[in-house]
Amino acid sequence: MRLRQPVVTTNSDEVVFLLRGCLDRGSSAEWEGFVHRVHGTVACAVLRAARRWTIPTSEMIDAMVEAVFLRMRLDDFAVLRRFRGNRPEGLLAYLRTVAFEVVQDDFLVRHVEQPAPAGAPMLVGRTLPMERDVLFGRIDTCLREGPAFPGSRRARQLFWMYYRHGLTARATAEIPFLQLSQQEVENTIRQLTRRTQDSLAGNTGVRAAEAPGGSLSLNEGEP
Amino acid sequence: MRSEDERHLTPEQIDLAAGMQDAPAEVTAHLESCPQCAEAADASRRFRAQLHSLRAGKTSLRGTECPATEELAQLAGGELSVERVDWLLEHIAGCDYCGAMLEAALGSAALRDSDLQMLQQLRTAEPNWQHRTGLAYARSRRWAWRAGCTGSAVAAAILAALVASGATRWIAERDVSDSERLIAGARAVLRPLTRAAGAVSRAARGTRLYGVVRGEKQYRRR
Fold first, then answer.
1. The whole model's pTM is what?
2. pLDDT band at A6 (very low <50, low <70, confident <90, very high)
3. Is the Cβ of A183 closer than 8 Å to some Cβ of chain B?
């Protein structure tokens, strides 16, 4: 049997069009091109997600990449059909989330099957263990009730993305909507941290007065 | 005031000393000689450690109010409305699951050289595997299309049968006289019998014909 050459896209913009073509009765060459194009993104996402749980081996990554591609294929490509965007960044981000879900589900099942060690509760959505919840509530109240400045709401969101989710300043700056540089994100977090520390310590001296105001101001809600 | 500022470290330098970034030599030297600044740097370090202890766990599950995965991907890809982005960021700030999902969508966690090497050597990175997957995808799509056609045909047939039975019932239950209904009912009962009788008679005719043909052949042989 003669093998057809896969449709290889060099332009990242073409990946969305390639997917649309594939879903609309695509040939095996087109599908192969799509698989080839997104494999790297999926494999990286799988590796990152697996590393949250363990030190992954190549066999483990291979098996999970296969599982991700299988998930995409189920129910007449329901997962891929759900993507409605037009930007390649959006599609690749979407595939990363799909890969993350597959890996997370897999490890959660294994985690549930194992006897849970003490102090490792299963958490749903916003919940935190009690002592952390208390600390989180105290700091969040302090952030909400502190002196308002332009963009204080956005600054609070950046603060929690950094401390609660471990999103680096660089990663946060990559969110297109925010339109902030890495330096701006770093400054915002640093100044808000200082201000919060002062507020919690009841320190209203020079450092609190110096705190943000001028430099810590973000254009909230503007693209 | 100015002279005091000069004597002590600035808040930025305290941050540096607390370990957010590499502290310059003069800051480190000052900390050794000034207990007040050393205490401030230590307090700052403790507070940051406390904040980092709030780091979300890996076992968090999706909550009922969490947004769809597609929306988080759209946020990372820059394809959402301003109002929605604001709601999403507010939600993510307080949700462990969505925070982890956004981090995954951004794909920002750094990979080591050894990771990149491993990714290149994956079995699934080989053209052969990708070819097979492409082929399976195309076949799956074709089967799904055929299944869809068959399903549509079956659904159409069922619908037609339902419409026909409904129409028959409607005709039967129309405002007609009792005698007409009786006749229609009798016909409906007799119809299969008539058909069966017809089939039997056709079969009998066929047998007769077969017998005639066979008899003729035997006669010729003789």
1. 0.69
2. very low
3. no
Question: Dihedral (C-alpha) B109, B115, B117, B121: value to the nearest 10 degrees?
Answer: -110
Question: Could you tell me the sign of the dihedral formed by the alpha carbons of A25, A29, A32, A37, in that order?
Answer: negative
Residue A151 at interface with chain B, using a CB cutoff of 8 Å: no
Q: Which helix (H) or strand (E) holds B17?
A: helix B11-18
**Averaged pLDDT of chain B:** 77
Encoded tokens for B71: 């929306």
Are A201 and B44 in contact by the 8 Å Cβ rule? The answer is: no
Per the structure block, which two tokens stand in for A81? 């059909």
Q: Which helix (H) or strand (E) holds B102?
A: helix B96-106
Of A215-219, B14-18, B145-149, highest mean pLDDT: B14-18
**Which residue of chain A is at minimal alpha-carbon distance from B15?**
A190
> Looking at the partner chain, which of A43, A93, A128 has a beta carbon nearest the beta carbon of B124?
A43
ipTM: 0.78
Nearest to B93 among A41, A156, A190 (CB): A156
Segment A15-37 shows an average pLDDT of: 89
Type of residue at A177: F
Q: Buried b vs exposed e over B77-115: b needs ≥16 C-beta within 10 Å?
A: bbbbeeeebbebbebbbbbbbbbbbbbbbbbbbeeeeeb
Residue pair B107/B94 in contact by the 8 Å Cβ criterion: no
Residues B77 and A93 sit within 8 Å (Cβ to Cβ): yes
How many residues are listed for chain A in this entry? 223
In degrees, to the nearest 5, what angle opens at C-alpha A213 toward C-alphas A212 and A214?
A: 100
| Contact indicator for A64, B128 with CB cutoff of 8 Å | no
Rounded Cα distance, A220 and A211, in Å:
19
Burial code (b: 16+ CB inside 10 Å, e: under 16) for B177-198 equals eeeeeeeeeeeeeeeeeeeeee
Query: Hunting for tokens 């003729």 — which residue is that?
Result: B216
In 3D space, the residue among A181, A188, A196, A176 whose CA is nearest the CA of residue A151 turns out to be A188
Structure tokens at B197: 């009788």
Q: Specify the DSSP class assigned to residue B124.
A: G
A54 interfacial to chain B (CB closer than 8 Å):
no
